[in-house]
Amino acid sequence: MMDLTEKTANINRHPWELSRSHCIIRQINNHTFTTIADIDAGDRFFTTKLLPFVTDTIYAVDTAYVDTNTKFDGIHCINSISELPELNDNSAIIMMDVLEHVSDDAVFLCVILDKLSSGGTLLITVPAMQFLFSDHDTFLHHYRRYSRKQLLTLLQKSGLIVEKCHYFFFSLFFIRLLTLRKKHIGGIGEWRFSEYHTITRIIRFVLNADFFFCALFARFRIYLPGLSLLAVCKKDAQC
Protein backbone atom coordinates (compact mmCIF):
# COMPACT_ATOMS: atom_id res chain seq x y z
CA MET A 1 0.00 0.00 0.00
CA MET A 2 1.11 3.56 -0.68
CA ASP A 3 2.11 5.81 2.19
CA LEU A 4 0.42 9.14 1.51
CA THR A 5 3.10 10.93 3.50
CA GLU A 6 5.85 9.62 1.24
CA LYS A 7 7.96 12.43 -0.21
CA THR A 8 8.27 12.38 -3.99
CA ALA A 9 9.99 15.72 -4.61
CA ASN A 10 13.33 14.04 -5.36
CA ILE A 11 11.95 11.78 -8.08
CA ASN A 12 13.26 12.64 -11.54
CA ARG A 13 10.21 12.72 -13.76
CA HIS A 14 10.50 11.34 -17.27
CA PRO A 15 10.08 13.96 -20.04
CA TRP A 16 7.16 11.90 -21.36
CA GLU A 17 5.35 12.26 -18.03
CA LEU A 18 6.18 15.96 -17.76
CA SER A 19 4.98 16.67 -21.29
CA ARG A 20 1.78 14.65 -20.88
CA SER A 21 0.95 16.58 -17.69
CA HIS A 22 1.67 19.91 -19.40
CA CYS A 23 -0.46 19.08 -22.43
CA ILE A 24 -3.41 17.82 -20.38
CA ILE A 25 -3.34 20.95 -18.21
CA ARG A 26 -3.54 23.01 -21.42
CA GLN A 27 -6.90 21.36 -22.14
CA ILE A 28 -8.41 23.01 -19.05
CA ASN A 29 -6.40 26.25 -19.04
CA ASN A 30 -9.40 28.48 -19.66
CA HIS A 31 -11.76 26.66 -17.30
CA THR A 32 -12.53 26.78 -13.60
CA PHE A 33 -14.30 23.77 -12.11
CA THR A 34 -16.13 23.35 -8.83
CA THR A 35 -14.55 19.93 -8.33
CA ILE A 36 -12.02 17.75 -10.14
CA ALA A 37 -11.42 14.05 -9.49
CA ASP A 38 -8.14 12.51 -10.65
CA ILE A 39 -8.60 8.74 -11.04
CA ASP A 40 -5.60 6.47 -10.37
CA ALA A 41 -3.76 9.49 -9.02
CA GLY A 42 -0.74 7.67 -7.57
CA ASP A 43 1.64 10.03 -5.77
CA ARG A 44 -0.49 13.06 -6.76
CA PHE A 45 2.27 14.61 -8.89
CA PHE A 46 -0.30 15.55 -11.54
CA THR A 47 -3.18 16.15 -9.10
CA THR A 48 -1.36 19.03 -7.41
CA LYS A 49 -1.17 20.83 -10.77
CA LEU A 50 -4.98 20.99 -10.83
CA LEU A 51 -5.30 23.21 -7.75
CA PRO A 52 -5.46 26.52 -9.69
CA PHE A 53 -8.44 25.27 -11.70
CA VAL A 54 -10.75 24.33 -8.81
CA THR A 55 -12.93 26.51 -6.59
CA ASP A 56 -14.00 23.80 -4.15
CA THR A 57 -12.52 20.30 -3.93
CA ILE A 58 -9.93 18.13 -5.64
CA TYR A 59 -10.12 14.37 -5.16
CA ALA A 60 -7.24 11.98 -5.75
CA VAL A 61 -8.58 8.44 -6.16
CA ASP A 62 -6.28 5.43 -5.98
CA THR A 63 -6.79 1.90 -4.63
CA ALA A 64 -3.18 1.93 -3.38
CA TYR A 65 -3.92 4.51 -0.68
CA VAL A 66 -3.86 3.06 2.84
CA ASP A 67 -6.49 5.39 4.25
CA THR A 68 -9.52 6.97 2.68
CA ASN A 69 -10.97 10.45 3.03
CA THR A 70 -7.61 11.87 4.09
CA LYS A 71 -6.52 15.37 3.12
CA PHE A 72 -2.98 16.25 1.98
CA ASP A 73 -1.88 19.57 0.48
CA GLY A 74 -5.49 20.59 -0.12
CA ILE A 75 -6.32 17.31 -1.91
CA HIS A 76 -8.89 14.82 -0.61
CA CYS A 77 -7.41 11.33 -1.03
CA ILE A 78 -9.76 8.36 -1.27
CA ASN A 79 -9.07 4.73 -2.13
CA SER A 80 -12.34 3.78 -3.84
CA ILE A 81 -14.48 5.29 -6.57
CA SER A 82 -17.49 4.41 -4.42
CA GLU A 83 -16.26 6.99 -1.88
CA LEU A 84 -16.39 9.74 -4.50
CA PRO A 85 -19.49 11.93 -4.09
CA GLU A 86 -21.70 12.81 -7.04
CA LEU A 87 -20.08 15.72 -8.85
CA ASN A 88 -22.12 18.62 -10.22
CA ASP A 89 -22.34 19.85 -13.81
CA ASN A 90 -19.36 22.18 -13.40
CA SER A 91 -17.02 19.38 -12.35
CA ALA A 92 -14.49 17.24 -14.16
CA ILE A 93 -13.09 13.73 -13.94
CA ILE A 94 -9.64 13.02 -15.36
CA MET A 95 -8.40 9.53 -16.22
CA MET A 96 -4.89 9.43 -17.62
CA ASP A 97 -4.00 5.95 -18.89
CA VAL A 98 -6.58 4.11 -16.78
CA LEU A 99 -9.10 2.43 -19.12
CA GLU A 100 -6.53 0.07 -20.65
CA HIS A 101 -6.00 -1.52 -17.21
CA VAL A 102 -9.68 -2.53 -16.88
CA SER A 103 -11.01 -5.78 -18.33
CA ASP A 104 -14.49 -4.38 -19.03
CA ASP A 105 -13.90 -0.76 -19.93
CA ALA A 106 -17.57 -0.06 -20.78
CA VAL A 107 -18.79 -1.12 -17.33
CA PHE A 108 -15.98 0.79 -15.62
CA LEU A 109 -16.79 3.92 -17.62
CA CYS A 110 -20.43 3.72 -16.50
CA VAL A 111 -19.30 3.49 -12.87
CA ILE A 112 -17.24 6.64 -13.38
CA LEU A 113 -20.06 8.47 -15.14
CA ASP A 114 -22.48 7.66 -12.31
CA LYS A 115 -20.41 10.11 -10.25
CA LEU A 116 -20.70 12.90 -12.83
CA SER A 117 -23.81 14.99 -13.45
CA SER A 118 -24.98 15.86 -16.96
CA GLY A 119 -22.86 18.72 -18.27
CA GLY A 120 -19.76 17.54 -16.42
CA THR A 121 -16.43 17.08 -18.20
CA LEU A 122 -14.52 13.85 -18.70
CA LEU A 123 -10.92 13.96 -19.92
CA ILE A 124 -9.25 10.68 -20.90
CA THR A 125 -5.91 9.52 -22.26
CA VAL A 126 -5.18 5.95 -23.34
CA PRO A 127 -2.33 4.19 -25.20
CA ALA A 128 -2.98 4.04 -28.93
CA MET A 129 -2.84 1.47 -31.73
CA GLN A 130 -3.40 -2.19 -30.86
CA PHE A 131 -0.74 -3.28 -33.38
CA LEU A 132 1.79 -1.59 -31.10
CA PHE A 133 0.83 -3.92 -28.22
CA SER A 134 4.03 -5.47 -26.88
CA ASP A 135 5.69 -7.09 -23.88
CA HIS A 136 5.86 -3.60 -22.44
CA ASP A 137 2.03 -3.47 -22.37
CA THR A 138 1.82 -6.92 -20.86
CA PHE A 139 4.23 -5.91 -18.09
CA LEU A 140 2.09 -2.84 -17.36
CA HIS A 141 -1.06 -5.03 -17.19
CA HIS A 142 -2.71 -3.47 -20.21
CA TYR A 143 -5.69 -5.30 -21.69
CA ARG A 144 -5.63 -3.33 -24.91
CA ARG A 145 -4.53 -0.25 -26.82
CA TYR A 146 -7.13 1.91 -28.59
CA SER A 147 -7.78 3.25 -32.06
CA ARG A 148 -9.56 6.59 -32.35
CA LYS A 149 -12.63 4.84 -33.78
CA GLN A 150 -12.72 2.33 -30.94
CA LEU A 151 -12.47 4.99 -28.25
CA LEU A 152 -15.09 7.20 -29.93
CA THR A 153 -17.53 4.28 -30.09
CA LEU A 154 -17.02 3.48 -26.41
CA LEU A 155 -17.48 7.08 -25.30
CA GLN A 156 -20.53 7.79 -27.45
CA LYS A 157 -22.28 4.58 -26.37
CA SER A 158 -21.74 5.72 -22.78
CA GLY A 159 -23.76 8.89 -23.36
CA LEU A 160 -20.89 11.30 -23.87
CA ILE A 161 -20.56 14.19 -26.29
CA VAL A 162 -16.99 14.03 -27.60
CA GLU A 163 -15.53 17.50 -28.11
CA LYS A 164 -11.98 16.40 -28.95
CA CYS A 165 -10.45 13.06 -29.83
CA HIS A 166 -7.03 12.82 -31.42
CA TYR A 167 -3.70 11.03 -31.18
CA PHE A 168 -0.59 12.65 -29.73
CA PHE A 169 3.13 11.93 -29.44
CA PHE A 170 3.51 11.33 -33.17
CA SER A 171 7.30 11.15 -32.81
CA LEU A 172 7.14 8.45 -30.12
CA PHE A 173 4.79 6.43 -32.32
CA PHE A 174 7.56 5.91 -34.88
CA ILE A 175 10.12 5.13 -32.22
CA ARG A 176 7.84 2.44 -30.80
CA LEU A 177 7.11 1.14 -34.29
CA LEU A 178 10.80 0.79 -35.08
CA THR A 179 11.53 -1.02 -31.82
CA LEU A 180 8.37 -3.15 -31.74
CA ARG A 181 10.15 -6.43 -32.42
CA LYS A 182 12.65 -5.88 -29.64
CA LYS A 183 11.99 -7.22 -26.17
CA HIS A 184 11.06 -4.31 -23.96
CA ILE A 185 9.91 -5.37 -20.52
CA GLY A 186 9.46 -2.87 -17.74
CA GLY A 187 8.15 0.64 -17.24
CA ILE A 188 9.55 3.79 -18.77
CA GLY A 189 12.47 3.40 -16.38
CA GLU A 190 14.19 5.77 -14.03
CA TRP A 191 15.15 9.10 -15.56
CA ARG A 192 18.67 10.26 -14.69
CA PHE A 193 18.11 13.98 -15.04
CA SER A 194 16.08 16.54 -13.13
CA GLU A 195 13.13 18.41 -14.58
CA TYR A 196 15.41 21.41 -15.11
CA HIS A 197 18.28 19.58 -16.82
CA THR A 198 18.97 20.66 -20.40
CA ILE A 199 18.31 17.19 -21.83
CA THR A 200 14.96 16.94 -20.03
CA ARG A 201 13.99 20.42 -21.20
CA ILE A 202 14.84 19.67 -24.85
CA ILE A 203 12.91 16.41 -24.97
CA ARG A 204 9.98 17.97 -23.17
CA PHE A 205 9.96 20.88 -25.64
CA VAL A 206 9.92 18.47 -28.60
CA LEU A 207 7.05 16.45 -27.10
CA ASN A 208 5.06 19.58 -26.29
CA ALA A 209 5.49 20.75 -29.90
CA ASP A 210 4.51 17.27 -31.07
CA PHE A 211 1.24 17.50 -29.12
CA PHE A 212 0.55 20.99 -30.46
CA PHE A 213 0.86 19.91 -34.10
CA CYS A 214 -1.23 16.76 -33.57
CA ALA A 215 -3.99 18.94 -32.07
CA LEU A 216 -3.65 21.53 -34.84
CA PHE A 217 -4.00 18.96 -37.60
CA ALA A 218 -6.96 17.40 -35.78
CA ARG A 219 -8.86 20.69 -36.13
CA PHE A 220 -8.82 20.03 -39.87
CA ARG A 221 -9.79 16.37 -39.33
CA ILE A 222 -6.29 15.19 -40.14
CA TYR A 223 -5.42 12.68 -37.42
CA LEU A 224 -1.70 12.03 -37.26
CA PRO A 225 -0.89 8.68 -35.63
CA GLY A 226 0.52 8.82 -32.13
CA LEU A 227 1.60 6.68 -29.22
CA SER A 228 -1.31 8.00 -27.13
CA LEU A 229 -4.87 9.13 -27.61
CA LEU A 230 -6.75 12.01 -25.95
CA ALA A 231 -10.49 12.57 -25.59
CA VAL A 232 -12.31 15.51 -23.99
CA CYS A 233 -16.02 14.89 -23.43
CA LYS A 234 -19.20 16.26 -21.86
CA LYS A 235 -21.75 14.02 -20.17
CA ASP A 236 -25.08 14.24 -21.96
CA ALA A 237 -27.10 11.29 -20.67
CA GLN A 238 -27.04 8.51 -18.12
CA CYS A 239 -25.33 5.21 -18.99
Explain this structure:
This protein is α/β, with parallel strands linked by helices and 239 residues long. The chain is built from six helices and eight strands. Strands 3-4-2-1-5-6-8-7 form an eight-stranded mixed sheet. A hairpin with a 2-residue loop joins strand 3 (70-72) and strand 4. The two termini are 32 Å apart. The mean pLDDT is 90.
Summarize the structure.
The protein is of the alpha/beta class and 239 residues long.
Strand-helix topology:
Blueprint: H1 15-26, E1 33-39, E2 54-61, E3 70-72, E4 75-78, E5 92-96, H2 105-113, E6 121-127, H3 135-139, H4 148-157, E7 160-168, H5 170-178, H6 198-219, E8 228-235
Parallel strand pairs: 1-2, 1-5, 2-4, 5-6
Antiparallel strand pairs: 3-4, 6-8, 7-8
Distance between the termini: 32 Å
How is the biggest beta sheet arranged? Answer: 8 strands, mixed
Low-confidence stretches: none
By DSSP (H or I, 4+ residues per run), the number of helices equals 6
Structural class: alpha/beta
Secondary structure: number of strands:
8
Q: Strand portion, in percent? A: 15-25%
Mean pLDDT: 90
Strand order of the biggest β-sheet: 3-4-2-1-5-6-8-7
Shape: globular
Give the ordered list of helices and strands. HEEEEEHEHHEHHE
Proportion of helical residues = 25-40%
Rg from alpha-carbon coordinates? 17 Å
